[in-house]
Amino acid sequence: MIELELSEEQRQLQRTARKFADEVMSPVAQEHDEQHKFPREIIEKGWELGLLNMTIPERFGGIELSCVSQVIVAEECSAGCVGMATSMIANDLALLPILIGATEEQKKKFVQPFTEKMRYTSFGLTEPNAGSDVAGMTTTIRSDGDDYVINGAKMWITNGSHAEQFSLFGKTDPAAGHKGITCVVVPGDAKGITRGKPERKMGQNASDTIGLTFEDVRVPKANRIGAEGEGFKIAMQTLDASRPLTAAFALGVARKAMEHAIAYSQERKAFKQPIANFQAIQFMIAEMAMKLQGARLLTYQAAALVDKKEERSSLISAYAKAMAADVAMEITTNAVQVFGGYGYSKEYPVEKLMRDAKLIQIYEGTSQIQRMVIARQIYGGANPSGGLV
Question: By C-alpha distance, which of 179, 244, 155 is closest to 168?
Fold first, then answer.
């Protein structure tokens, strides 16, 4: 039986996250966007409410929310400000490789501290010349006795300016392609790390994004997650589990844009009547609602499959991420159109949402990469329906 209702516990979580988004995030979202201001105080308040580090198991002091429940939080917070939400949920992305591939002792050492006080950690996979082509990374992790020595550069690192720990991917065997990639945990205060200046971006300006350089950075081999060469598999499993959350970011942005468009169309008058009376506007709103709900259902399906630990979650997660990101871009663009000239003005909220939406089509696997993932799985024999037909 397919269950399409949230539990009462999930409804309460949704109310908590929505209240936080409406009362704490939204009132200062414009300010943080315009000033490219990192929302440290807001993130700390979110941590106190249990809206961060949602993947940490209870045995390590975490709340261990299901992926479906995490999606609920991600949608609500991104409706408040997706730049802030990206910074809030970056910890979960960075902790996932450890939770997927580490020993119990490593999990206690590298994960449990994040339940004890507010800390930041970052996921280090993308490089200046290796984004979608993960196997093309050039960062090296060279063996030297009981240590590894790391050299290379990473790019687009969320919360990189503030991270006390990095889940870093590099090559222990540069000649082996993706089979030579290994994951290690790097302390943020390790000697040889240089943090770049925050990137000046089109949107999601409340999110801190920097480049990192590693020059003879030494870490103990005990910090390796999984075996040498298992890094690519760990990274892909991480992204499969995190893509529903990225899709949920798109849902929150799209929903907020649609809500603004509906409200404005009922207030704005043309030809002596609200523009909501015109079929052209009604069809735009109907299209927004229809596509948003379709993307939401697909996102929840992907999250449910992650919770069940089913292999087909990889396919459905790619469906969800690609569809939700594209729908968000379409809805925010059309919301600007509903507002007309005012939609193009920074005095109104929809232009920010449009700028914010664009990044969701790019990070954590572009919309084109998602289509490659989908096509390869289908041609590889995967059921395109995800098992529903």
Answer: 155
Write the pLDDT tens digit of every residue in 124-159. 999 999 888 888 999 999 999 999 999 999 999 999
If pLDDT is split at 50, 70 and 90, which confidence band does 2 have? Answer: low
- Per-residue pLDDT reduced to its tens digit, 319-342: 999 999 999 999 999 999 999 999
Alpha helices in the chain (DSSP H): 8-20, 26-35, 40-48, 67-101, 104-110, 113-116, 231-267, 279-307, 313-339, 350-360, 367-379
Can you read off the two tokens belonging to residue 149?
């020595």
Distance CA 124, CA 21 (A): 28
Give the dihedral sign, CA 163/366/313/138.
Answer: negative
- Report the 10 Å Cβ neighbour count for 194: 11
- Nearest C-alpha neighbor of 82 from the set 332, 299, 296: 332
The type of residue at 47 is W
Could you tell me the domains of the chain? 8-116 (1.10.540.10), 121-227 (2.40.110.10), 232-379 (1.20.140.10)
Provide the pLDDT confidence category of residue 1 given band limits of 50, 70 and 90. Answer: very low
Find the radius of gyration of the CA atoms of the chain.
21
Quick count: other Cβ atoms within 10 Å of Cβ 31? 11
Residue 203, SS3 per DSSP: coil
Calculated CA dihedral for residues 29, 30, 34, 36, nearest 10 degrees? 0
Give kind and range of the element (H or E) at residue 102.
Answer: none
Q: Which are the catalytic amino acids?
A: 364
Please give the span between the terminal C-alpha atoms of the chain, in angstroms, as a whole number. Answer: 14
Structure-token match 């954590």, residue found: 364
Selection from 291, 294, 370 nearest residue 331 by Cα: 291
Torsion angle defined by CA atoms of residues 268, 250, 248 and 256, in that order, rounded to the nearest 10 degrees = -10
